[in-house]
Amino acid sequence: MTLDGSPGATDSGPRSDEWQRLHPLTPIVYVSRLALTIGIALALTGLDRRNSAGGVSELVVGAVVTVLIVIPAIVSVLVTRWRFDGEVLSITTGLLRRDSRQLPVARIQAVDLVQPLVARMLGLAELRIRLAGASGTRGRLAFLTEQDAARLRARLLAAHHGLDQETPEPGEWRILSVPVGRLIASVAISDIGLLALALAAATTSIALVAPQFLAGILGSAAPNLFAVGQAVVRRIFSEFGFTAAEAPDGLRVRSGLLQTTAETIPRGRVQAVRQVEPLLWRPLGWRRLEVDVAGGVSNRRGRHRSSARVTKTLLPVGSAQQANLLLSRVLGVGAPVLTRPPHRAIYKAPLGYHFLAAGHDQVHAVTVNGRLRKTTAWVPLEKVQSVRRVQGPIQRRLRLASVHLDTAGRRVHAIFRDRDSTESARLMETLAVLGRAARTRDLRATGPPPHPGVAPVP
Amino acid sequence: MRIFQALATGTVVGLAFGLAFCTLGSGPGIGAGGGIFLLALLSLWFLHRRVRAWRYQERDDDLLVGRGVLIRRLSVIPYGRMQYVEVTAGPIERIFGLSTVRMHTAAFASDARVPGLESAEAVRLRDQLAALGEARAAGL
């Protein structure tokens, strides 16, 4: 990474905060994403009309389609500009309807660097910035050159942590990586992998026993087979070569075979962590870690993006030791003592009772739920938005109640399920008091939120 | 809370219908009318219990909201976690001079809704919450 502005098409001098454009090669990446689909469609129509005299018209159709895709992409590159002045990242876009966004750096929740295959070959990268708040607040810069994207990320994160934005990107050290064999094995014995295996077995057995029905069955089941296969492949591809690294500005998580993603989770932005242990993984001691970060990435133009991931995978599959290592890095130390709900809870939750447990200390709350998929959730008390106590009719008869901890994340739910009635009432009080104490401690540690003008600070 | 009145009008109409059927109709008409009458009475009673169960308390640092008869819920929402307060009044609520105060946090699951407040009380609660929220605001 160069620190002084070396001349280049999109190069920014380090201090420059004037408007910048996207990289001129961006349309190629957009087109290449659709090239395969168009190619297949053209080939199919070509096959259909092989006998009719339409060789030229296919070419014309192809050219028209390509132009229709290229032109909006070119226009969007021409009208999009961005600028970072040290506090606010501004992105302006739109030809007919101008859309300009201000992303205050203080509210950044995560910064991701995404590189689809073609972009990687061209040396381009997309920067995605997640903010706290309503779903409309997100930033996306596609595409910049790799150096520009990396440098902008470093500047954003440095500014976010209150450092001089010229602080060079700090070094990072690798904590762990997931071997390919283990990843494939883990997907194979996960729910979707087992489904795919069962389908494959059924197909082969049909092929062996009654080959005459094979074509008909395959024809009718093809879309489902395709979908399952695609899900398996996508999961392996997206989590291929998973690496977690620690840097002073947060945890870096990298993965991907064709499209690589480098996510940065800044310190203190984790809303909740969840550890999932599916039934078949348990004998092997494997588990999966997911982190909830506030605010999702959503995109006006849905076609240009893969599925929105609100939850970030912190560890696709790993041993207890690896999971604990990452947990201690993300949440800090401390293991609250877990207590079981009273034995009479078995009448209300005959299956789930097996793993039910929960506990809290001064900083975190930990809950364990689920039977087939044992799920453990960690919630830092300073991130708790509200505490809820819910008591259904059966629970009231058994003098039980559940206490929910609501966080800004969307996937992870920490529930103190089926606790004793009086204990749950006490829990409501203590959790509220501890949460307040943790919040004030948090404020004192980091100072008041730096952007009172943007308040109500989420 | 006067939401009771608002919700009750619907069932009172039901009661009136039932009575009318009883007096005017004959044979099956009386049966149907009586059925409607009983149902309306029953739902009036459920409604009464439901409205009675809805309660809120402003404490020093948080708001308590409780509701529910069959499934009892109680929420503690710290003022510092509040994103914004919303006061809404639908057409029927407006007829009776009522409003609903809703407090939003960053979590979707948080459920802090107090319906059926007199409009003046709703405005007071809104201003109170907003002031307290500003004083105790905390980052995400």
For the residues shown, what is the average pLDDT of chain A? 79
Give me the count of strands of chain B: 6
Class by SSE composition of chain B: alpha+beta
| Major sheet size, sense and barrel closure of chain A | 7 strands, antiparallel
* CATH-defined fold name of the domain at 284-446 in chain A: PH-domain like
Please describe the structure with a list of short key phrases separated by commas or semicolons.
heterodimer, A: 458 residues, alpha+beta, PH-domain like, 7-stranded antiparallel β-sheet, 6-stranded antiparallel β-sheet, 11 helices, 20 strands, disordered N terminus, disordered C terminus, B: 140 residues, 2 domains, 3-stranded antiparallel β-sheet, 4 helices
Descriptive notes:
The complex is a heterodimer of chains A (458) and B (140). Chain A contains 11 helices and 20 strands. By secondary structure, chain A is an alpha+beta fold. Among the domains of chain A are: 59 residues; 163 residues, Roll (PH-domain like). The longest helix of chain A has 28 residues. The two termini of chain A are 34 Å apart. The N terminus and C terminus of chain A are likely disordered. In chain B, the strands form 2 sheets. Chain B has a 3-stranded antiparallel β-sheet. Chain B has a 3-stranded antiparallel β-sheet with strand order 4-5-6. Chain B folds into 2 domains: 49 residues; 80 residues, no CATH class. Chains A and B meet through strand 18 and helix 11 of A and strand 3 and strand 4 of B.
Concise overview:
With 458 residues, chain A is an alpha+beta fold. Among the domains of chain A are: 59 residues; 163 residues, PH-domain like (Roll), CATH 2.30.29. Chain A contains eleven helices and 20 strands.
Topology diagram in text:
The complex is a heterodimer of chains A (458) and B (140).
Chain A: E1 20-21, H1 26-48, H2 55-79, E2 81-84, E3 88-93, E4 99-104, E5 108-115, H3 117-122, E6 124-131, E7 138-145, H4 146-160, E8 173-177, H5 180-188, H6 191-209, H7 211-238, E9 243-247, E10 250-255, E11 260-265, E12 270-278, E13 287-293, E14 311-318, H8 320-331, H9 345-348, E15 357-360, E16 364-369, E17 373-380, E18 386-391, H10 393-397, E19 400-406, E20 414-420, H11 421-446
Chain B: H1 3-24, H2 28-53, E1 55-58, E2 62-67, E3 72-78, E4 82-88, H3 91-95, E5 98-105, E6 112-118, H4 119-135
Antiparallel strand pairs in B: 1-2, 2-3, 4-5, 5-6
Helix pairs in contact in B: 1-2
